[in-house]
Design brief:
- By secondary structure, this protein is α/β, with parallel strands linked by helices.
- The chain is about 45% helix and about 10% strand.
- It has nine helices and five strands.
- A five-stranded parallel β-sheet has the order 2-1-3-4-5, sandwiched between helices.
- Its EC number is 3.1.-.-.
- Keywords: Hydrolase.
- It holds the Pfam family Lipase_GDSL_2.
Length: about 250
Amino acid sequence: MKRIWICLLWLACLCPMYGQGLRILFIGDSITDGNWGNSDGSAVPSAGRNLWDMNHIYGSGYMYLCASYYQSKYPGKGYEFFNRGISGNALADLEKRWEEDAIALKPDILSVLVGTNDIHYYIGGPHAEPFDTLGWEKRYRALLDRSLRANPNLKLVLGAPFTAFTGSMKESEGFALRDSLVHTLARIVKRIAVEYKAVYLPYDEMFETLLHEAPSSQDTYWIWDGIHPTPAGHRRMSELWIKEVERAGIL
């Protein structure tokens, strides 16, 4: 612990711009996680991850690409980014850690991407009852409301969940139902984004376009297993994030 604090003090002296600008928080599941903090893709709690090694602080996905873009292009603005994606998380998991990982960090901008695991667990388990879309929407709104009460000036960036019939997903059953439910959650997120005046990121539509344009022999080029983007896919996600956030003028 002493060594970690020494490193943090050293970073503060070496990089005085850190902590002086806007705080941008990304929260979600493995797509945001990107093996953040040397977690090896496992569901290690945020407090148990590497929070100081600047070589591994953001993981290796779209969140990393967004952070590296802004921090390299605007070094004088002191932008401070946080990755709080955890592999395997569904909306209920975010709810359990919302206070620690979303509110306590006091972000100025909150970027949320969640939903694919909610559907994944539903498809993989007994589901005599329809998926509770109304309950999911209510829980999603409640989390945003908690953050807005803590910071009424908070800017929201909401990403649509997505899936694809690629790679190992072709070997699983129930893709039609999965695809339909993921699109339903995407429509819910879009509706919430409109009502909350948030930036909306139509990742589902983006990947559908990319997959349609990709040669059939390369259907894993953008999403390799039906859920997780490839490096190329993450790059396109970051480009969409940057484009829409700058269009909204919040960063």
